[in-house]
Amino acid sequence: MTRSDWPPASQARYAVIVLMVAYLFSYVDRQILSMLVGPIKADLGLSDTEISLLHGLAFAVFYTVFGIWPIGTWADKGNRRNIIAGGVFFWSLMTAVCGRMTSFAGLFAARVGVGVGEAALTPTAYSMLADYYPPEKRGRALGLFSMGVYFGIGVAIMVTGALVQYVSVLPPFDLPLIGEVRGWQIPFLLLGPPGILVALWVMSVQEPPRRGVTAELPSFRAVIAHLLVHKGFYLNFFFGIACLTLLFNGIAFWFPAHLMRSFGVDALFVAFTYGPIMFFAGAAGILAGGMLADRWRANGDQTAEIRVALLSVLFLWPSAIATFQAGDVTLALMLAVPTLFFSSFPFGAASSAIQLVTPNQLRARVSAIYLLVVNIVGIGLGATVASAISDHILADESRIGDGVSWVAFVSLPIAGLLLWRCQKTFRALQQV
Prior knowledge:
This protein has 21 helices and two strands. About 55% of the residues are buried. By secondary structure, the protein is mostly helical.
């Protein structure tokens, strides 16, 4: 199939940039919490484990369930652009609502709302971009889209870190039409509403024609049947990438707290050291991984995307452990550069792998099931496993870095084994 059979390159580039910005905002709203651990714990009397549940379980369960149904079903048959725009609007609104909650239960419910809105973006965007780009260009495009994750986390850390330095010491005060506001609520109130403008921008993206469609949308039973027939690939791949996501979420959420607790630095220091590292190293890693997968595939390697993920495991295992065991803040930050680079390295290629072997009208729902596994394990448990180790095994919250190190020590070999096992079936599935 020639390039002329696909949407114009300029239209495809515009779509991926707009969707990447939407992804950036999703991670800004998702990651605000990591820089507000101290103020929220102090105000609401929460433990590290409860904070991790707000970041993980509250978000991940509904994010993943709604991604399959009804959103995944809508995305496989409806206008994907409109679904994404609606999701951006809703999660931005719910982020602002987080800034009005004054209890664990209320904040948990608002974070559920953020997760429901964000469920509209990723599987739907994967499906759209697979119809914008041919297979040999898809890894780079999905890598560019996924750079929004690392831009978003970096921006959240820098902006929220700077705000925390100021607002954490503020007493409660009243705002017109809003009422009493506590210092930690201000970042939610400031960073949520701009996403509504992004929702309007998404409406300027054109919906691409679907490829390989059938007269009727295959049922959800057909989706499950497809996964079961090819379970040798999907099970190993989904859980292999989930183990990588488990570690990434532990690193991303707890590294700011680790720096502050272990080395006595303040939020402003973290904001303008760790924030830029995440912004640049994470974004560079996911784009480089997607580009490398595209190059290997163009050279005839049918396992290119899996090999990229295995390369990530190889370099990340020593790097991640060393980052959290460093005895000096400068060394820890230096080691964070390769750690964040290689922790992001496989994800663009992984998204491309699923689109490559999944029929068009199953893609959004298969991607949503992939995200169900990856996010329940990764987002739902990534921060919580590390904090459970420091809270209940080590009984010392200052040792949160040791908790993340143990996650890395166990999860990465499992990821490597599962990904190694799925190479043969991945190659065979491309011939189906």
